[in-house]
Amino acid sequence: MSEETPRKVAIICSKGTLDMAYPGLIMANAARLIGIDCMLFFTFWGLDIINKNKMDKLQVATVGNPSMGMPTFLGGIPGMGAMATSMMKKEMEKIEIPTVREMIEILDASGADLYACKMAMDMFKLTTDDLVPEVKEVLTATDFWEKAEGAQVVFV
Amino acid sequence: MSEETPRKVAIICSKGTLDMAYPGLIMANAARLIGIDCMLFFTFWGLDIINKNKMDKLQVATVGNPSMGMPTFLGGIPGMGAMATSMMKKEMEKIEIPTVREMIEILDASGADLYACKMAMDMFKLTTDDLVPEVKEVLTATDFWEKAEGAQVVFV
Amino acid sequence: MSEETPRKVAIICSKGTLDMAYPGLIMANAARLIGIDCMLFFTFWGLDIINKNKMDKLQVATVGNPSMGMPTFLGGIPGMGAMATSMMKKEMEKIEIPTVREMIEILDASGADLYACKMAMDMFKLTTDDLVPEVKEVLTATDFWEKAEGAQVVFV
């Protein structure tokens, strides 16, 4: 296989929380670092990751996330999500993980292809003006499959 | 590869919320539209998508979903989830996305294979009578891997 | 393909809830049962699954999970998550599904390779002392892609 086609990964980002934005971005970046072709497809809540007005304000999901180590009841109290978000951002900074906006710029510069999902944009009434310029194209799900042929698919 | 075996995708639907039911169904439909073999495996909460009595009542997850644009605290107030669900259904209708039930019928008619997970059915005490007739077979996880050989796997 | 390289699956466990720990573990086990090479990569909240002090206390996410069949509002009441967790554990036991700790032991004994994500460990300030001995190695995301070449990828 390696002679015919280069290795490729296709990462679908469907969630808009800070803790689920990073896994897709980090896996994409790691793929590019070792020369694997990489495309990202942002759909549903994942559009927030490439939305100019939202990408800097992604929040950690605290409620219903028992891994946070706080009771669900507390997670529902205003401010808890903000606190968890600020804590996670601090920890990410300490270990020198770039912000979401920086990750998008790095991915684009590294040659990863960023795409937005047409249907999700229609549903949320978004236009390309709402998105960062690094987004290369708006794709239908059919376009996605055509471009993702032969790729290892990761749905986050 | 294209000479030997046709391209195939295997989509695992493990969530029962409206916003996470659609990505799997839409990706499956898109795959069939361009002639890619497609199987769907419904497991855990994803069984709700093919449960005759639940499929029309799937709800959008609002709490702990910061992307909804409302504070977690508000998401916990009775009625907020229902409101978000009704809003999403209206938006989906406007852009002519079929209902979940219609998507299942379309997928079946298009030749996609729908399977239910045996272990999850046992856990939730479901029988095939609880499921829509479009479900072709109940599979174990082992059966799944056998049928999914060579497929691009999407776990939603 | 079968002549050149053995079939392989790479399962990424990114969630720490009981209901999302099982799908990855069960799919990994099923793969091993039919001789498919299998690696698991635990990252973000998924580290809880291999954390000695947390793996026995994973909770079902009730809030924001409409599939649980209880209103979001109730899910936020202290004790509801615990009740759902205890119910799920009972149902899993009835159908003879091993505990999470047992699943990890079974996977290791069956030849599956368990890896922890370096970045997530740094973020959560964990060391290998916090993890079960079945974890073979701590990997970067780049290492993950190198080991996962040719694998069907499942991101849970």
Plain-language structure description:
The first copy, chain A, has 156 residues and is an alpha/beta fold. Chain A has one domain (8-155): Hypothetical Protein Ychn, Chain: A (3-Layer(aba) Sandwich). Helices cover 37% and strands 17% of the residues of chain A. Chain A has six helices and five strands, in the order E-H-E-H-H-H-E-H-E-H-E. The first copy, chain A, has helices spanning 18-33, 72-75, 80-94, 100-109, 118-123, 141-147; strands at 8-13, 37-42, 113-117, 135-139, 152-155. In chain A, strands 4-3-2-1-5 form a five-stranded parallel beta sheet. In chain A, helix 1 (18-33) links the parallel strand 1 and strand 2. Mean pLDDT of chain A is 88; it is low at 70-76.
- What is the CATH class of chain A? Alpha Beta
Tally of DSSP helical segments of chain A: 6
Pattern of helices and strands of chain A: EHEHHHEHEHE
Query: Tell me, what's the shape of chain A?
Result: globular
Lateral strand order in the biggest sheet of chain A: 4-3-2-1-5
Overall residue-averaged pLDDT value of chain A: 88
Largest interface: A-C, 36 and 42 residues
Say which CATH homologous superfamily of chain A is assigned.
DsrEFH-like
Could you say what the CATH topology of chain A is called? Hypothetical Protein Ychn, Chain: A
CATH architecture of chain A: 3-Layer(aba) Sandwich
Percent of residues in β-strands of chain A: 15-25%
Using the CA coordinates, give the radius of gyration of chain A. 16 Å
Structural class of chain A: alpha/beta
User: How helix-rich are the residues of chain A, as a percent range?
Assistant: 25-40%
